[in-house]
Design a protein that fits this description.
This protein is mainly alpha-helical. The protein has helices at 2-45, 48-56, 58-70, 75-80, 85-110. Helix 1 (2-45) packs across helix 3, helix 1 (2-45) packs across helix 5 and helix 2 runs antiparallel to helix 5.
Length: 111
């Protein structure tokens, strides 16, 4: 009996974890669409190294500006899920730093 109760609690927790993960992933993709466009332009004119640095740092602000301009109403969905703008932005920053470091390491290894 106790095992069934724990199993139900675990299923419910996984459902909410999966829901938050999907929401964070959607925000990550939406912000980085604008970020990638900006970083590609930087990469063409300045170079790959500065493009990676821009993607991980300053480009997030550009992506946030694009998201705020074109998809501002979606913040209500994240707010209803209990996710604040600061929480979402921190997650995007961490993901972008990881992606940039891995990409730059692969660039150095295979150069």
């Amino acid at each position: 009996m106790m095992n069934l109760l724990l199993l139900e609690k675990a299923k419910e927790a996984w459902k909410y974890f999966n829901m938050y993960t999907k929401a964070i992933l959607k925000y990550f993709i939406d912000v980085n669409v604008f970020n990638l466009a900006f970083c590609i332009v930087i990469g063409v004119f300045i170079g790959f190294f500065w493009s990676m640095i821009t993607f991980a740092t300053f480009g997030i602000l550009f992506g946030l500006l694009g998201f705020k301009t074109f998809k501002n109403n979606e913040y209500y969905t994240y707010y209803n899920l209990g996710l604040t703008k600061a929480y979402l932005l921190k997650r995007v920053l961490v993901f972008n730093l990881c992606i940039s470091l891995l990409t730059f390491l692969m660039y150095l290894i295979f150069l």
